[in-house]
Amino acid sequence: MKKVVIADDEKAGRQLIKEYLSDYPDLVLVGEANNGVDAIKEINEFKPDLIFLDIQMPGKTGFEVLNYLDEIPKIIFSTAYDEYALKAFEVHAVDYLLKPYTKARFKTAIERLSQDQNQLQALVQNVVLNDCTFPSRVLVQFNKKLVSIKVEDIVWVEAYGDYSKVHTSSNAFLSNYGISDLENKLNPDVFVRVHRSSIINLDQVKELDRYGKSYDVTMSNGEVVRVSRGYMDTLKKLIL
Q1: How far apart are CA 194 and CA 225, in angstroms?
Q2: Does domain 2-123 have CATH number 3.90.650.10?
C-alpha cells in the first residue's frame, strides 16, 4: 500500500484524481488540501509516498510547498498551466499532468512511479537550492529519505567524494552537491571556505587554536576543522 495526498484548489480537480485513483487499490488516499498551507500540514502529518500537487494555489504555490516538507515524497504535478513544466521536471516530479487530461494519460503518470529514486533526490535538491538566492532550508539525504533542515543548523560542510557531508549538532547528512556547488549556494557572509574540503558556519564557531602557521577551528558540535594555508587570508579578515 502506498499513501497518497492530493493538493489542488479546485474541487473538480481533486474529484477527478480520486476517480482515476479508484483503479489502483494499492494507492490509498489519506489526505487532501485546497491550498498550499494545508497541503504542507497534510503532507508532513501523513508522510505520503505520493502527492498530486497543483502549482497555482492560495497560500503557497506547489513549488513553495516543497520548501516546507520534512520529507519529499514522489510528486505528480496536476495543473492547468503549461509554463511550469520545465521547472517541474527539475524537481522530484514523476510526471506533469496538464489539465484537462484523460484516464489514459493518468495511467502513464502512475506507471512512471517506478523511476529511480536517487535521480529524483538529486533533482529536487537542485530546485530547492535554486529557489532563492540563499535558501533558508536545504534538502539532504538521511536513511534513504530526503529531509529538510534549516541552513542555520548547519555547523560545517565536508567534501565527500563527488558529494558533500553536511554536519549539524546531532547528525551528518549527505548532499548530492559537491562542496564547491554548495559554497556558491550558501550565504558567504555566514559560510566560509577554510579548506578545499571544508566550509564552516561562522555562527557555529566555538574557538580557534593555533596550529603551526594555521588554525584549528572547534565548532559548536565539538568537531575540529583544520584551516589550510591557502584559505588563511579569508579567516584572518575575521580576526580582530
Answers
A1: 8
A2: no
